[in-house]
């Protein structure tokens, strides 16, 4: 993995021109946004929201009213994809990182243990390579399979809950802040509230307001 990150970082512009080799894992959008983020970089004043489509789908700087808040989410991203583009984020030693990932890894039929281990690898890299950065690990969110939209997520509710259990314990071991968003967006049955989504996975505006209110104290501290 370390060697792959090194190669990716050195050849990122070239990879943008020839993404077909990894098309099954990383689509065109990944390279478009990853190379843009690498070009934009971060600095010591940056507050970075890092993740997949759930992060990608929000205008965080507007929602939080802070121009130094940066959206580094990519639709469809997995833990490996985040790992490959971490160099461009950590290079500037950002003030804070709010990390969330795992949904797409779940859809690839990976186990809870393997996904939690992959996220722990991201956490370790951030803590090692940018120790002054304050890291906030956010839970995975509930899903709602009654919409019938994402067949690869069918029956994966318990996997998500198991990942969150492992991530919460890992955050405690490493002394990083755990933000448990799951119950804030879940209904009485533990599913994503139907009024907060239109596809069972992604969020409508009111859900982002709940998310904002949950992270705002940490953004401001």
Strand content: 5-15%
Order of strands in the sheet with most strands: 2-1-3-4-5
Uncertain regions spanning at least 5 consecutive residues: 13-21
Span between termini: 34 Å
* Rg for CA atoms: 17 Å
Report mean pLDDT, rounded to a whole number: 92
From the spread of the alpha carbons, the general shape counts as: globular
Q: How many β-strand runs?
A: 5
- The number of helical segments is 11
Order of helices and strands: HHEHHEHHEHHEHEHH
Query: What share of the residues lie within helices?
Result: 40-55%
Structural class: alpha/beta
Specify the biggest β-sheet: 5 strands, parallel
Q: What key phrases describe this protein's structure?
A:
221 residues; alpha/beta; 5-stranded parallel beta sheet; 11 helices; globular
Description:
- The chain has a five-stranded parallel beta sheet, with helices on both faces.
- β4, α9 (157-174) and β5 form a beta-alpha-beta unit.
- It has helices spanning 2-17, 28-40, 53-56, 60-64, 79-84, 86-90, 103-107, 112-129, 157-174, 182-185, 205-220, and strands spanning 47-51, 69-73, 96-99, 134-138, 177-179.
- It is globular.
- α1 (2-17) crosses α2 and α8 (112-129) packs parallel to α9.
- The termini are far apart.
- By secondary structure, the chain is of the alpha/beta class.
Could you give the topology of this structure?
Elements: H1 2-17, H2 28-40, E1 47-51, H3 53-56, H4 60-64, E2 69-73, H5 79-84, H6 86-90, E3 96-99, H7 103-107, H8 112-129, E4 134-138, H9 157-174, E5 177-179, H10 182-185, H11 205-220
Parallel strand pairs: 1-2, 1-3, 3-4, 4-5
Helix pairs in contact: 1-2, 8-9
